[in-house]
Amino acid sequence: LSVLGRRRANMPQHAENGGSSLGRVLTLDSMNPNVKRVEYAVRGPIVTRAVQLEKELKEGAKKPFTEVIRANIGDAQAMGQKPITFLRQVLALCTYPELLEDDKFPEDAKQRARRILQACGGQSIGAYSASQGIECIRQDVSRYIERRDGGIASNPDNIYLTTGASDAIVTILKLLVAGQGSTRTGVLISIPQYPLYSATLADLGAVQVNYYLNEDNCWSLDIAEWKRAVTEARQHCNPRVLCIIIPGNPTGQVQSRQRIEDVIRFAKEERLFLMADEVYQDNVYKDNTFHSFKKVLFEMGPEYSSTVELASFHSTSKCYMGECGFRGGYMEVINLDPGVKAQLTKLVSVRLCAPVPGQALLDLVVNPPQPDEPSHATFMKERTAVLANLATKAKLTEEAFNAVPGIKCNPVQGAMYTFPQITLPQKAIDKAKEAGQEADMYYCMRLLEEEGICLVPGSGFGQRAGTFHFRMTILPPTEKLKIVLEKISNFHVRFTKEFSE
Amino acid sequence: LSVLGRRRANMPQHAENGGSSLGRVLTLDSMNPNVKRVEYAVRGPIVTRAVQLEKELKEGAKKPFTEVIRANIGDAQAMGQKPITFLRQVLALCTYPELLEDDKFPEDAKQRARRILQACGGQSIGAYSASQGIECIRQDVSRYIERRDGGIASNPDNIYLTTGASDAIVTILKLLVAGQGSTRTGVLISIPQYPLYSATLADLGAVQVNYYLNEDNCWSLDIAEWKRAVTEARQHCNPRVLCIIIPGNPTGQVQSRQRIEDVIRFAKEERLFLMADEVYQDNVYKDNTFHSFKKVLFEMGPEYSSTVELASFHSTSKCYMGECGFRGGYMEVINLDPGVKAQLTKLVSVRLCAPVPGQALLDLVVNPPQPDEPSHATFMKERTAVLANLATKAKLTEEAFNAVPGIKCNPVQGAMYTFPQITLPQKAIDKAKEAGQEADMYYCMRLLEEEGICLVPGSGFGQRAGTFHFRMTILPPTEKLKIVLEKISNFHVRFTKEFSE
């Protein structure tokens, strides 16, 4: 203590680095500046206010609405979607293996549970798995990909099981970030984009390079626009990565096979690492056909399939499963340099492993009940109902919004979102500006306060300057969705009128 | 296409940035250099080889052993520890709520499950939770902390539910990293350390500042040594963080209350943010008393409790639960700047939420069956058996190693590891050097090949130059642990003899 006491009195040299000795070590001024630049609109101020409103309602406050409807996030079960029975049966068996003796569980569920438990350390989902994921589940993922892609081979060594797709996307981006100043890695992302991408790039200190989707052509991809983006980016950074989300989030479009070929060709020409976010691969309502990047890449022949580097992401959170809370997912890496792959495996090992219940859940998604198994009929019935229902709601949403003057909505071809453009009166834009707000944030905040509906403003995803949008999920149950659509429509008319007078 | 074609022929300016157009975008040369510096010995080359050996055995290869025993990692259930019945019953009920109608489940398990489901979106653990974690579980965590700390208040707003403790530790370190060159954040970590810390610091590009634990005094903390470390560090970085693991990993010591006071006083004097890794808080075999940093901090009076910034970490993976696969955990933050706290909440929201099954599991750990509830007796019996068994194995391990000439082992006072010092003949050290290996890596690799026992070399955790150690978990079942200890002892004698001739 005397040593410390003396030092304190005589040698306060640390104050030079740390500022006032009365203040905190960690302040807004002294914290990681990259973290400060992170933004994540899907859970931003609108959601904070929604949570507050829910509390106020619970405490008996009077509002112009009786419940807050959260259409801000793709959280199917929170919106009332029931879990798929087979998935939950197997997970319960894995969690509490005493149930394997229970006659109420079907034999195929038990068989799946036994197989998963066999592959776990100590035959328990409470053990860590291998960092890359449980081996037999990675094999099942590969077989799933092979079936999906018409037999194109998939190697389980290229599969990593992850904590949702978010974890995987962050990990791959982290590998790719290098250089300083004008050699810093640039990452092309679509605008509008899912803000995980912009948030991660801010966190990693990478350069975000925007390419705009063509709203007038159903949010399609546009080669000339990529060209512009990459050419401009080369003036100030080293663009090395191209991120694509298909089906689109927040825009709900499904790109044609031809466009995917264009993407791959462009990536090869421009030497870009391709990141394909395909978490909505079962959510295709247009023609019901999903073209995976992997499949198109291999169909383009060895000139492409042996050179273009691709990471493709999938998740248990979306599609018919909607099991967001389990944080399950996988990625497949193609043409990854073997040395880099070893680095990737090392990197994921630091956090030991993805949650094992999520891995088990993923196994059921990629290895569902077969026609000769007892759970098949129920499973198919439940799965089909969810997807058919989403297709109906996609159509319903498009039609309802396009009937409102000042709302223009592309067809929801896939995923579970709509991203309509809203025309806002200049006076509303000015009013928002006065308050230091984006006009669509002002609009969405007013909607929340007046109708209890929680959306995300387009500015949280990015949009062409001067245009305004919001993202809404189509997940509420049909009857509730109809109410939501009507409330938004009425609000829009009212809002427009208020600021047009 | 023609645009692309022309550009390719005439303007290959991107080759300047990207190197040969034939090579990959992402290579060892062009990847994130920080990731290359990451090392994580607990799952390093030794474990890779162990997995290989297991495969070879399965395929019928003849080895000097019939199974590989993995004593490299604190993975209780992989070593045969049975899950606690109550925890798994409640999780099964949450997973498949149809079981709430089943008479085989006790009423208190059902009541817990109902309460957790009520707090979930759509009453399903398949929904995302709030990013900070489910509110009623955060409240339960606070009450647990209050009971543990003799009534010192805990605010649920200061609790974050996380993906194991690893996730929380990485997140807090990320907030703290700032500056460049001589102002770059320095982080004091013990040597030996748990390599999550060194790996994360490499990843974040922070400066690792080593302080050595005093092996001769049972791995105790030493003020003069911190003083040395921090003073030297100030020459080249800005030391702002002090990380402590109590009970110790890999060293198994429990620090006295007095030492924890010293740590807190030192942190205040030197303006260091305190990170207290307390994931082994139930694993205390010496005097059976755990002194939390939070409690000691508040008992030191407002001069400390209102100023010293502290983040404390806990996990469902260790203690009596050993539920590693669920990746559950929490952190409590004390005296965090409110602006920084908002940044922390924003940052964790980017990955949406920690796995909900892990959150549910944590709720049971902090809110176990009470004496008047039907599951109490079984729960206490199972819990006590695990902890008593570990205490026995701690003693057994210490005694067995200290009986071997050339192995010197401090008492295992807590956690689930021993980190004995091994004396290696100079010839062995030279032989390893020739092979470009650390001597303890060579030793552990030989042990694995000859006896099938997988340990982690001390060099993976850090140790004073010229000393050698290994880390072994005490988790194998007693009968197997006895075999492990005998095999290591025999091997050590044989190895020493081989290189002393």
TrEMBL record, chains A, B:
Residues 101-488 form the Aminotransferase class I/classII large domain. Pfam families: Aminotran_1_2. It catalyses: L-alanine + 2-oxoglutarate = pyruvate + L-glutamate. InterPro entries: ALAT1/2-like (IPR045088), Aminotransferase_I/II_large (IPR004839), PyrdxlP-dep_Trfase (IPR015424), PyrdxlP-dep_Trfase_major (IPR015421), PyrdxlP-dep_Trfase_small (IPR015422). The keyword DNA-binding does not apply. It comes from the Eukaryota. Its EC number is 2.6.1.2. Pathway: Amino-acid degradation; L-alanine degradation via transaminase pathway; pyruvate from L-alanine: step 1/1. Residues 1-24 are annotated as: Disordered. GO terms for biological process: L-alanine catabolic process. Its cofactor is pyridoxal 5'-phosphate. Keywords: Acetylation, Aminotransferase, Cytoplasm, Phosphoprotein, Pyridoxal phosphate, Transferase. GO terms for molecular function: L-alanine:2-oxoglutarate aminotransferase activity; pyridoxal phosphate binding. It is found in: Cytoplasm. Its main location: cytoplasm. Homodimer. Belongs to the class-I pyridoxal-phosphate-dependent aminotransferase family. Alanine aminotransferase subfamily. Catalyzes the reversible transamination between alanine and 2-oxoglutarate to form pyruvate and glutamate. Participates in cellular nitrogen metabolism and also in liver gluconeogenesis starting with precursors transported from skeletal muscles. This is Alanine aminotransferase 1. It comes from Tetraodon nigroviridis (Spotted green pufferfish).
